[in-house]
Specification:
The chain has 89 residues and is mainly alpha-helical. Helix 1 packs across helix 2, helix 1 crosses helix 3 and helix 1 runs antiparallel to helix 4. It is rod-shaped, with a radius of gyration of 22 Å. The protein starts with a helix and ends with a helix.
């Protein structure tokens, strides 16, 4: 199954093709099953990407979330150790 970013890029390309066939952006977006507002939001975020870029971005987002969780856990451990240490003396 393709990642969500790749699916967005496919939808953006679909709208571009429909526009090149003479449809307005609103009509093309509706035919692609998205709203015009969604099209513009996605185009702003994903417009210059290809599928490989979207996959890489998704991987980086997952890694970033994992690292943020790790930092939060380590910060909590550190705070607990400081609290325990301050009560011993």
């Amino acid at each position: 199954m393709a990642c969500w970013g790749v699916e967005i890029i496919v939808k953006l390309r679909e709208v571009e093709i429909l526009c090149n066939q003479g449809n307005t952006i609103a009509e093309a977006a509706r035919q692609a099953g998205i709203t015009e507002q969604t099209y513009y939001r996605w185009r702003k975020e994903y417009g210059g990407m290809n599928s490989a870029d979207a996959k890489r971005m998704k991987e980086l987002e997952k890694e970033n979330a994992r690292l943020k969780k790790l930092v939060a856990e380590l910060s909590l451990d550190n705070a607990i150790l400081k609290d325990v240490n301050s009560k011993n003396f």
